[in-house]
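## tool: complex_structure
## caller: assistant
## args:
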Amino acid sequence: MTTGFFWDERCFWHSGGNYALTLPVGGLVQPLAAGGLPESPETKRRLKNLMDVTGLSGDLKLCSADPATPDQLARVHPRDFLREFKEMSDQGGGDLGLRTPFGQGGFEIAALSAGLAQAAVRAVLRGDMQNAYALSRPPGHHCLPDWPNGFCLLANIAIAIETARAEGLCQRVAVIDWDVHHGNGTEAIFYDRDDVLTISLHQEHNYPLDTGDMADRGQGKGLGYNMNIPLPPGCGHTAYLDAMARIVLPELDKYAPDLIVIACGFDAAAFDPLARMMATADTFRQMTRQVMRAAEKLCDGKLVMVHEGGYSEAYVPFCGHGVLEELSGSAKSAADPMAETLRKRQPNARFDAFLRGEIDEMVRFFASAPEKG
Ligand code: ZN
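## result:
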């Protein structure tokens, strides 16, 4: 069956203001020649372009989608916040959170970004497609109900899940967030609920600086249904696959979801300017295989990936291409030009043994975790 690829050129037109890395320009911070936040359209546009060049796009069902409606957004975000966001967007843009600026029309673009995720989830749950990838931009996993942050303006995945639930398409959803930053928004939105399992693998104390602790397991009915896997800087291919195999996949088996959603960031890749991990395109490809196998076993293969971060314009396209090759089974490949270099740069055996010990600790911690609420 088909793999859907949901994208829209307008998502690439979201403008993020004038920053250098995450620093507003001015004073001693010189504007970059290219301008704008590291959350630039180029990482995403270049992924789509690479897929066009190799022919992979031709093996997918390419779609756009309607923007999420105000009523759909309001299942996650307070109406006052949405009103303020829309007004500021109509008046030329601004910033309603932490260094997460938007320009004229930013509200409509963010609603479209959420709409892509929503349509992907709906299509897979209805059985119109086997699985799907939403090239959403702006991203969503950091956004709190009334506070945009970390370049995320609306909580795309949470909105998509709430719409699917309201339409009676699913009961239990597992969200695995392998963006290198903590999925603090998704965690917060579902923290007291047992109908959405949230798991975040992230570089410890990267962004946000003070969230994503292992001890944060959810509360009330949601106790035990939030899982944070904070990994030390320098984790590479082996540590990521190990954490997935030994912590994430067993938890998925226990939870038995109707749908698996991946918050798919590529900023754990070795060339990312906003993190310090050593994952490769093959790491993302192998993790995709892992979650596809889990989805086949648990929920008829129902799997949706929603694009989050990833800031290496040169490397993200190869990571994304590998993921989409796996999802679709397409033979249109784009060999990773950095594979050999990154293989040699992976953590040495001593550091990998240390990381395995860290993951052993986490396995023990979660085995002794509190009874679920
Ligand atoms: Zn990120």
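## assistant note: The pocket of zinc ion is lined by residues 179-181, 265, 267, 308-309 (CB under 6 Å). The mean pLDDT is 96. Handing back to user.
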